[in-house]
Design a protein that fits this description.
mainly alpha, Monooxygenase, 74% helix
């Protein structure tokens, strides 16, 4: 049920107009369609992208080992991703907020796996 709710919310978001399209007289119809398309594309990619980390996380937890996975690298990735969430909140940009929150969850899963099973 939670997944269905998330999908409905995502689809609702995708139907929204670009936040900067309030002054349509400055945009041609082509540019407006392009910006709407670009917003939808970046939102979808922003949601899908973090799941590229899933195979790494699954591997760590399935095998109870993290050979060759650097805690320093994944820890730093986790740290440098956080300011993007603050940026998204400050600018009220749903794409950035959703994407980087998902990135943080996925990166944290790897960090936790390395802490539990590394070395």
């Amino acid at each position: 049920m939670i997944y269905a709710y998330a999908i409905v919310k995502t689809m609702h978001y995708l139907g929204l107009r670009h936040k900067h399209e309030h002054h349509e007289e400055f945009h041609t119809k082509h540019q407006s369609r392009y910006l709407v398309f670009l917003d939808k594309l970046t939102f979808v990619v922003g949601v899908i992208g973090p799941f590229t980390v899933l195979p790494q996380s699954i591997s760590i937890f399935r095998h109870h080992a993290a050979p060759g996975v650097s805690l320093a690298t994944w820890g730093l990735i986790f740290v440098v991703t956080f300011p993007w969430i603050l940026y998204g909140l400050a600018h009220k940009d749903k794409s950035i907020i959703v994407s980087f929150c998902l990135w943080e969850v996925m990166n944290l899963s790897v960090v936790i796996g390395v802490l539990m099973y590394g070395r």
